[in-house]
Amino acid sequence: MTDIKTKTGSGTIEKSDSEWRKELTPMQYAVLREKATERPFSGEYDHSFDPGTYVCAGCGQSLFTSDDKFDSGCGWPAFSAPAAESSLAEERDVSHGMVRTEVLCSKCQGHLGHVFPDGPGPTGLRYCINSAALKLLPE
Question: Which H or E run contains 22?
């Protein structure tokens, strides 16, 4: 596994720390900018299956659709595929004594969660994403 796998979206967003703090809630800032993780089963989208598009809470880029959301029982919203391959970037994460693949928004580089190879077909992937990193745009 490579350390960095970047898929660049259109127009990267760069902001100062103070700009991010003004625009995001404390939980959104902690997750998106400091790579924090919500407590399992605490996020607003964990058990929500309303139709729509999930966008990045930091920059508004489309990340996932409700068609690819499933109940994995892991405690965080889970998706089997991104809305577009170019909407996500991945990095190797060796924190907490584990080796995982971190998922980032390709436009603002906000931390979203992690991807695991134990999801349903056809991709076999489970994108385990923090609710605080998302906003649902209803259909």
Answer: helix 17-23
Please provide residue 68's backbone torsions phi and psi, each rounded to the nearest 5 degrees.
Answer: -100, 5
The verdict on residue 13 lying in a domain is no
Structure tokens at 11: 């127009």
Provide the CA 126 distance to its chain's centre, in angstroms.
11
Going from the C-alpha of 125 to that of each of 82, 114, 120, the distances in angstroms are: 10, 10, 7
**Residues forming the active site:** 128
Parent domain of 119: 40-138
- The domain that contains 100 carries what CATH number? 2.170.150.20
Per the DSSP assignment, residues forming a β-bridge with 90 are 5, 103
Q: Is 74 annotated as a binding residue?
A: no
Q: What are the tens digits of pLDDT across the range 30-64?
A: 999 999 999 999 999 999 999 999 999 999 999 99
Could you give the number of structural domains in the chain?
1
Task: Give the C-alpha separation, 79 to 76, whole Å.
Answer: 10
